[in-house]
UniProtKB/TrEMBL annotation:
NCBIfam families: hnRNP-L_PTB. Pfam families: RRM_10, RRM_5, RRM_8. It comes from Hipposideros armiger. This is Polypyrimidine tract-binding protein 3. CDD domains: RRM2_PTBP1_like. RNA-binding protein that mediates pre-mRNA alternative splicing regulation. Plays a role in the regulation of cell proliferation, differentiation and migration. Positive regulator of EPO-dependent erythropoiesis. Participates in cell differentiation regulation by repressing tissue-specific exons. Promotes Fas exon 6 skipping. Binds RNA, preferentially to both poly(G) and poly(U). Plays a role in pre-mRNA splicing and in the regulation of alternative splicing events. Activates exon skipping of its own pre-mRNA during muscle cell differentiation. Binds to the polypyrimidine tract of introns. May promote RNA looping when bound to two separate polypyrimidine tracts in the same pre-mRNA. May promote the binding of U2 snRNP to pre-mRNA. Cooperates with RAVER1 to modulate switching between mutually exclusive exons during maturation of the TPM1 pre-mRNA. Represses the splicing of MAPT/Tau exon 10.
Length: 523
């Protein structure tokens, strides 16, 4: 083999191919990247699109006979970000995995090589799109041009959150429109929200146009998307609430689950991220969610639909690999008020979002507790709705626990009644498959839905009941068609959360126990 290649440039002799099968020492970072296992029918634009989200692509050399290519980025920093991103999440072109490493060359010299016309034309077309001098095909003209200084960060609000929407699900959906670098999720104004940063404002633009107003699942979990005023996100921890996909070395933060190895494997598996590549000329592949509610018109370079399977039997979503520890149904709840909280109180509150089997308040640290739900989906749902909620003057935090079950105390072990088994409780809301309660899961709200009210109980009786529990009653009304049900509006969400804990299952006489839920309505 001819090894006389000058160190400054690359020629088509496949010099970088030598001994790459595992025994080659890794090269130091370079802005030239060596790509292997490229399918023979892949176009120049598709290869360029792998690098596009990370910065300007300045040159390309395709070695089709060897299924290889060299890609030159404008800066070493862009190349490093690209390699860091694609190391755990192997990119795919035409459903084939592509392997990327640094080249031992510092720049690409292709001026004197034959067959470079197509590569140069593709580079010029991409740079025209990036500079905004070319309109997006199929895009409305008023939206198709990127405004100067437009942010690559999207603010996402999810309305009608009936099923858990995790950071992984957002990554799965938004990756179809380009490379997602960072995601932060949080609850604000009783709504599940996220900030999501793309590598390029063009990707953010396209995702917003295609996804705004769409439902993730049938008739629920509606996406409301705007550009954020932030131009970049600062992620400190990689856990179930925030993630920087370019920095796998970040800590998980106190009390947060780490990304366990099986989870990381599931996360990079086909089906979860079937293709992070951004489609021809940097346009995102289209997604089709017809089966599950999200139907998005095709985008240039479209791929097949993204499958999120629905578990119809229980009326909940089964999302592969979408829990912090796959299948874990135990939550770690922290920052509780030890003077007021009891296992029964946690059972009632978390029972709004699933069937609670066991609760353990920590013997040595009573502001922390473990709550075991019936399954991982219910745990995720309770975590999404309750983490960040105020309860007895403190902001509750819920994350997935590293424990798989809550242990009951051994006989004779001192426990002070801090561990309780509720698995046979008659108060479970979701025991019956297909129960109507599945359709009435709402975030904590100041308005409560009351039901199972006996005929003899008046409005004043109910108002007094809530006032005696320490609530300020702002409004009350019985349902017109059914006097067994009513809405009551209290002074704050925190009051309502505490009233639900105190008064759910309260004995109203005549063998009627009051049922209390959060309502999406206001009076």
């Amino acid at each position: 083999m001819n090894n006389s290649t000058p160190s400054t440039g690359v020629y088509a002799n496949g010099n970088d191919n030598k001994k790459f099968k595992g025994d080659r020492p890794p090269c130091s970072p370079s802005r030239v990247l060596h790509l292997r296992k490229i399918p023979s029918d892949v176009t120049e634009a598709e290869v360029i699109s792998l690098g596009l989200p990370f910065g300007k692509v300045t040159n390309l050399l395709m070695l089709k006979g060897k299924s290889q290519a060299f890609l030159e980025m404008a800066s070493e920093e862009a190349a490093v970000t690209m390699v860091n991103y694609y190391t755990p999440f192997t990119p795919h072109l035409r459903s084939q995995p592509i392997f990327i490493q640094y080249s031992n060359h510092r720049e690409l010299k292709t001026d004197n090589l034959p067959n470079q016309a197509r590569a140069q034309a593709a580079l010029q077309a991409v740079s025209a799109v990036q500079s905004g001098s070319l309109a997006l095909p199929g895009a409305p003209t008023n939206e198709g041009t990127i405004l100067p200084g437009q942010s690559p960060v999207l603010r996402i609000i999810i309305e009608n959150l009936f099923y858990p929407v995790t950071l992984e699900v957002l990554h799965q959906i938004f990756s179809k429109f380009g490379t997602v670098l960072k995601i932060i999720t949080f609850t604000k104004n009783n709504q599940f929200q996220a900030l999501l940063q793309y590598a390029d404002p063009l990707n953010a633009q396209y995702a917003k146009m295609a996804l705004d107003g769409q439902n993730i699942y049938n008739a629920c979990c509606t996406l409301r998307i705007d550009f954020s005023k932030l131009t970049s996100l600062n992620v400190k921890y990689n856990n179930d609430k925030s993630r920087d996909f370019t920095r796998l070395d970040l800590p998980t933060g106190d009390g947060h689950p780490s990304l366990e190895p099986p989870m990381a494997a599931a996360f990079g598996a086909p089906g979860i991220i079937s293709s992070p590549y951004a489609g021809a000329a940097g346009f995102a592949p289209g997604i089709g969610f017809q089966a599950t509610g999200l139907s998005v018109p095709g985008v240039p370079g479209a791929l097949g639909p993204l499958a999120i399977t629905s578990s119809a039997v229980t009326g909940r979503m089964a999302i592969p690999g979408a829990s912090g520890i796959p299948g874990n149904s135990v939550l770690l709840v922290t920052n509780l008020n030890p003077d007021f909280i009891t296992p029964h109180g946690l059972f009632i509150l978390f029972g709004v979002y699933g069937d609670v089997h066991r609760v353990k308040i920590m013997f040595n640290k009573k502001e922390n507790a473990l709550v075991q739900m019936a399954d991982a989906n219910q745990a995720q749902l309770a975590m999404n709705h309750l983490s960040g909620q105020r309860l007895y003057g403190k902001v509750l935090r819920a994350t997935l626990s590293k424990h798989q079950t809550v242990q009951l105390p051994r006989e004779g072990q001192e426990d002070q009644g801090l561990t309780k088994d509720f698995s046979n409780s008659p108060l479970h809301r979701f025991k019956k498959p297909g129960s109507k309660n599945f359709q009435n899961i709402f975030p904590p709200s100041a308005t409560l839905h009351l039901s199972n009210i006996p005929p003899s109980v008046t409005m004043d009786d109910l108002k007094n009941l809530f006032t005696e529990a320490g609530c300020s009653v702002k409004a009350f009304k019985f349902f017109q068609k059914d006097r067994k049900m009513a809405l009551i509006q209290l002074g704050s969400v925190e009051e309502a959360v505490q009233a639900l804990i105190e008064l759910h299952n309260h004995d109203l006489g005549e063998n009627h126990h009051l049922r209390v839920s959060f309502s999406k309505s206001t009076i």
